[in-house]
Amino acid sequence: MSDAAFSTAATPSAPEADKRVRYSLGQILGADEFEQEQFYFLERDRQHNRVLHGYGTALGLAVSLSGSEVRVEPGLALTVAGKVVRVDARQCADFAAWVGANVSALLPADDAGFQRAHVVLGYHECDTNRLPLPVTPCCGEGEGVATRIAETFSLAFVAEPPAQVEEWLTDRFGRLLRAIRLAPAPGTPLALADVPPLVRTLIAGEALGGPWQVAAADFDAVIALAERVWITEVRPQVPVDAGPPAAPTVLKPEEPVLLASLRFRLNAGVLDAATLTLDDSARPLLLNTRTLQERYALGQTAQPVAAAVVASETAFGLAPAVGVSEAYARADHTHGSPPMPVSGGDLTGPIDAAQVVALQGVGLVSTGAASGQLLGFDGTVWRPVAPPAVGGDPVVLGGDANGPAGDNVVAGLQKRKVSDEAPAHGDALVWDAEAEAWRPRPAGAAASPVRVVAAGVLGFNGARGPVFGGLELVDNNPMLIRFDGYVRPNFDGGHMYILKAIAMGTLDKPIPSVGCAGFVEKGILISLSFGTELSSLEAGWEVMLEVSEYGEKP
User: Fold this and answer.
1) pTM summary value
2) Residue 541 DSSP symbol
3) 495 Cβ partners below 8 Å, 6+ apart?
4) Are the beta carbons of 37 and 22 closer than 8 angstroms?
5) pLDDT digits (tens, 9 = 90+) for 486-542
6) Helices 165-178 and 219-229 meet at what angle, rounded to 10?
7) Cβ distance 381 to 362 under 8 Å?
8) DSSP state of 354
9) Domain segments of the chain: what residues?
10) Fewer C-beta within 10 Å: the chain N or C terminus?
């Protein structure tokens, strides 16, 4: 049925992110034009946020516990899709009530009997300010139309955490850059051609390895190439919610932002509040540009740094060299060396052709010596003299050598006593400070066969302070550590490691036992256990480690 009084309502078209409205004189503007205009600029802002800044907590949003109540403070975050989410007042929720209503949806407990849930923040829109606007023949009198869209937030507990693929991948790229060090720092030499395949392995989740050593002349080129491969090849593979909604009235799902993780035990299906702990170390964070300026000013970036050594000189009389780089202190410069020294006093002449012309300032006659003569003092100078006649008064020695000249005993060295203990084959004289005497001892016994090669404290996210020997955490599950110069032990060859480890944590959670699970090519496997049940390194635990080396490396 058709009638001139009826007209067909126009079907709205979906807004497009790459189109903006072109205005012309006399043009009739409808809702589609205004929606398209608004959508274009919204998407440009969100694209700017997600591509140039990333996502995560930018301000506030601290999460805390009060019994079983979870509190989230006011703050602001960017979602994976680049949308701004603002929480303007403290939000509270009873976690125990949520667990009771969702116990069947929780993931299985870990080996220690703990379960997990997560606090997430998402973007939410809702229609509001409805008014009766009969703008089409299909809209009856009294029906309302939303005239505003409220941008707000959604806070929720979830059993599984958000994927956080970009946060994970960006963190790996940052650790890769920090592992590229300026020579002569320890590390595997890294050539320019090795950089692209190294950066491409990030997306596959392979172990990073490193550290790597780069010459000063190649450092800037290596970092620039790593950044180029990251921007043009690796980061485009990260899934980002970049498209518009399927229709104007349907919100496209997007990944929320992780704020914190909760760890707890259940007792007969009910939350055991005494076991509830909170960890927000895995949440993505965004530093503002001003803070980044200060961090760069402190030198906490992968920039060239001052050289730790200066090229050694090998001869006298060399001129100093300033090196080739003008940007920073470098290891290719030299300080030069002094001219060939000239001796004086009892020793005279150039250092490479000096002659002894006196003893303790008393002149020494340089000619007239014959075979068998001794050096004697004639009252003025030292000169060659005949030895004393045989059969004269016996010569008796004193000081370090005691007794007749033909049958004396060395009782000291430089006025320090020599023990009369009988030596064994292969012994060497070793100074015994307690006995204040030189004593025969097996060769090498004075040196300790055990050397400390690495030490420090490692936590869930790596080092918890200064470390010795390049100690670092390679993996959490199972816990794998590595340090500079690590070589898998060879017990048959006499090369071994001695591991000392202590687990630390807070008083409100159990502390695991620590042991050595084995030695692999990549490092030392550390076992964490509660009785007979093995566990992995988790947030809230720290392990204090000391590694000593015994014997020579193969």
Assistant:
1) 0.48
2) -
3) 487, 489, 549, 550, 551, 552, 553, 554
4) no
5) 988 877 767 888 888 888 877 777 788 888 888 888 899 888 887 777 777 777 778
6) 170
7) yes
8) -
9) 31-162+240-279, 165-239, 342-442, 450-550
10) N
